[in-house]
Amino acid sequence: MSTAKDFPGKNVDRVEQPEENYRATLNIIEDLDEERLKSAGTQTALLNMLEDFDEERAKGADTQTALVNMLEDIEDSRLRAEETRANLAQVNKELEGFSYSVSHDLRAPLRAISGFAQALREDEGDRLDADGLRYLDLIQDNAHRMGQLIDDLLAFSRLGRQQMVEDIVDLDVLARSVFSDLAQQEKGREIEFVESGSPTARGDAAMLRQVLQNLIGNAIKFTRTKDRTRVEFGYDPEQGGGAYYVRDNGVGFDMQYANKLFGVFQRLHSAKEFEGTGVGLALVNRIVARHGGRTWAVGKVDEGATFFFTLPGRRSE
Amino acid sequence: MNEDVEVEIVVVEDDPNDAELILRVLKKHNLANKLVHLEDGAQALDYLLKKPPSKRSNGANLPRVVLLDLKLPKVDGLEILRQMKADERAKKIPVVILTSSREDRDIVNAYALGVNSYVTKPIRFDEFAKVVSDLGMYWVLMNKAPHK
Question: Are B126 and A118 within 8 A, CB to CB?
Fold first, then answer.
């Protein structure tokens, strides 16, 4: 403030000028300072950006590593899947070789058994008594039965490997044709076939024919002791979300053994009561399972049985 | 075996039981008089692909049919079939595969190689006997061979 006295004659101005100068200078300094601050800010921002960028870069590197890891994992699972597939192909090949030699080598001794039993009957039959001839019958019957077993088991094992050919299948038509084939072999029996109309299904027609052949064949077999036979094929939307069924009025079964019905070689009747190898329903179960469906049965001794199966790929109601 | 004897049926079968049963059935139908039985693949190749003696005209006295099993020691049935059908002389002999195998690939392969018939051996002997006698009757008595 003393500087005002250094400029005499210009009182008013001179008094105010230093103040303004001072302010201007201050302003400039302030501005400069602001600029400095701003530039410091900019610098910081730049630094931050650089840091951010660096972080991003680091993150990017991380991401890259993660991607590489994922790719490696994928490659790993691909290799594992390939290995599994190779193993499976190997097992399938072995199985094929197995069933090939079963079909070839197990049949030959059976034919010899039944053949030489027959030769004995032809050449020495008049020297055998009734029991002797009956034993020859038993030898031949059993050879035949074992041949049937081999055929059924081979069909069963082939099923797992067989390629499915998907199609829209009219099960009503199939059931009718299966029934008329089977009923023709039952001479002298009155068999009523009832059909209540079923939706078409999506599946392998040849396999589904096998399902119906076994179920309708069973229905015809296990009604043999009844005077009147009734076999029904239909579809019940109330059962298990919609299930096809084959129902008969035959000898039925005790529900406490229901869980055994679909097992391989499991039988609820002796061969004397009803012939069979115990493979049919296992085959049915396997085919239906391959179609993504399930099988079950309801029955009562002497009051018939109903076999249900679902085919989730069904198309129309 | 005497080469001058006319042979009608050649049975290539390694299983002695099957062979005996086949011979028994053919004998019963009087079809086994001019029959040769060979027990393995090497014997069969030897017999079927041999050069005809010069005194015979090419193609004369060829068997009327070969009943060929598939699974044989040394050389299998399909290989015998392949070599026969590749041979100018032997390819005129009708070949019937008579086997236990019902495998699709065997059937397909046999026909691809030019087999004349493919028959599976039934398990039941009564059916087996019928198949064998039918084959004998058909190929020896009914079928017209190119070289007779």
Answer: yes
Q: Which domains does chain B have, with CATH numbers?
A: 9-142 (3.40.50.2300)
Contact A108 B101 (CB under 8 A): no
pLDDT tens digits, one per residue of B103-126: 788 999 999 999 999 999 887 788
Q: CB–CB of A104 and B71 under 8 A?
A: yes
CB-nearest partner of B100 from A104, A114, A116? A104
Residue of A nearest to B122 (CA): A111
Domain A163-309: give its CATH superfamily. Answer: Histidine kinase-like ATPase, C-terminal domain (3.30.565.10)
Prediction pTM value: 0.57
Q: Do A111 and B129 touch (CB under 8 A)?
A: no
Write down the ipTM of this complex: 0.73
Rounded alpha-carbon distances, angstroms, from residue A58 to A45, A48, A52, A292: 19, 15, 9, 50
Distance from C-alpha of B13 to C-alpha of A6, rounded to nearest angstrom: 143
Question: Which residues, at least 6 apart from A32, have a Cβ–Cβ distance to it below 8 Å?
Answer: none
Which amino acid is it at A73?
D
Please tell me the distance in Å from B4's CA to the nearest CA on chain A: 33
Residue length of chain A: 317
pLDDT in tens, B85-108: 999 999 999 999 999 877 788 999
